[in-house]
């Protein structure tokens, strides 16, 4: 059940049950340097089975939670069940979000740094992350075809019924450029490394330059791993040092800063939490000013110093800004 790509091999190629079960990278927390953290204590599980509820990471590839669940099932010689709970609506998500997620399912929270307080900004967490990056940024072990069959046959999924059950805004259509699924996400990653990584360090804030990874949809729905992206991008550090370091800053440091804020700040999802995140965590407050207060704002003159505003305007409204 091997799947090979041009630059790396996807999970699913272990030679035996023992190879996967004995792999140190999927062992328990005492053996792997703390990669496993118990989030829900004493989660009930019916006798004779192991369950993996997929929510944040929805793919089998490069999924530490899935690997650990399989290891436990192999150790106890039990079948392994994967469950995804589909809700008809979630906040203001549209069919664009749900469609990408569901199509990715057809293809089938840990805090990285051990800190005991809320960090005040990237400057206070950055060194802590880089000091332990080598410890956590390891290659993924393989997933194997599970050798212990289930006691029952799962019913076929009626994907049309799943779509019909959604109570979401369908006016925001799905996009054609982002094909859901792990394989498609890895192709975008490969394309980014080959064509755009060289520009990322200097032009990632320039909307007129194709310099971004475009990986956000696959990251958001857990269809490819940020860790996989970092492992592959980091191979090119000797050629694109500034770009690789910038990508790690955005994908790891800033991401972990957000996780740290949500983990330690009880008001992270309230108005005061959102304002503190904007004004104090990811950006620092400025001197008090009339109207704007302490929030840094992006004015027209500032934009013009950073990129060609006229070119950007003509791109989206060529007739109005023809001159």
From TrEMBL:
Q: Which Gene3D superfamilies match?
A: 1.25.40.80
SUPFAM superfamilies per record = Cryptochrome/photolyase FAD-binding domain (SSF48173), Cryptochrome/photolyase, N-terminal domain (SSF52425)
UniProt cross-references to InterPro entries, sorted A to Z: Crypto/Photolyase_FAD-like_sf (IPR036134), Crypto/Photolyase_N_sf (IPR036155), DNA_photolyase_2_CS (IPR032673), Photolyase_Class-2 (IPR052219)
Q: Where is this region: Disordered?
A: 1-38
Q: Which residues form the signal peptide?
A: none
Q: Which domain of life is it from?
A: Eukaryota
* PROSITE patterns noted in UniProt: DNA_PHOTOLYASES_2_1, DNA_PHOTOLYASES_2_2
UniProt-recorded name of the protein: Deoxyribodipyrimidine photo-lyase
């Amino acid at each position: 059940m091997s799947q090979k790509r041009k630059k790396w091999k996807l999970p699913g190629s272990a030679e035996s049950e023992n190879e996967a079960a004995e792999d140190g990278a999927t062992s328990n927390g005492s053996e792997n340097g703390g990669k496993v953290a118990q989030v829900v204590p004493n989660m009930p599980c019916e006798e004779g089975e192991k369950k993996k509820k997929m929510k944040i990471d929805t793919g089998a590839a490069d999924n530490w939670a899935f690997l650990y669940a399989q290891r436990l099932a192999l150790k106890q010689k039990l079948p392994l069940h994967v469950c995804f709970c589909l809700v008809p609506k979630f906040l203001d998500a549209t069919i664009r979000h749900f469609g990408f997620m569901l199509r990715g399912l057809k293809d089938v929270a840990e805090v990285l740094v051990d800190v005991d307080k809320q960090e005040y900004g990237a400057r206070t967490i950055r060194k802590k992350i880089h000091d332990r990056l080598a410890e956590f940024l390891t290659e993924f072990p393989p997933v194997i075809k599970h050798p212990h069959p289930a006691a029952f046959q799962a019913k076929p999924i009626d994907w049309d019924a799943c779509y019909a059950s959604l109570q979401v805004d369908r006016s925001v259509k799905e996009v054609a450029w982002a094909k859901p699924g792990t394989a498609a996400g890895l192709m975008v990653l490969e394309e980014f490394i080959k064509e755009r990584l060289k520009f990322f360090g200097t032009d990632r804030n320039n909307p007129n330059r194709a310099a971004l990874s475009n990986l956000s949809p696959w990251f958001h729905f857990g269809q490819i791993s940020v860790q996989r992206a970092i492992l592959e991008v980091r191979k090119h550090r000797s050629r694109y040092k500034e770009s690789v370091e910038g990508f790690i800053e955005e994908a790891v440091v800033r991401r972990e800063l957000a996780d740290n804020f949500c983990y330690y700040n009880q008001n992270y999802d309230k108005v005061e939490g959102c304002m503190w995140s904007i004004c104090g965590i990811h950006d620092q407050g400025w001197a008090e000013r009339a109207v704007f207060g302490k929030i840094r704002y992006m004015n027209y003159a500032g934009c013009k110093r950073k990129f060609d505003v006229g070119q950007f305007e003509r791109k989206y409204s060529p007739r109005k800004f023809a001159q």
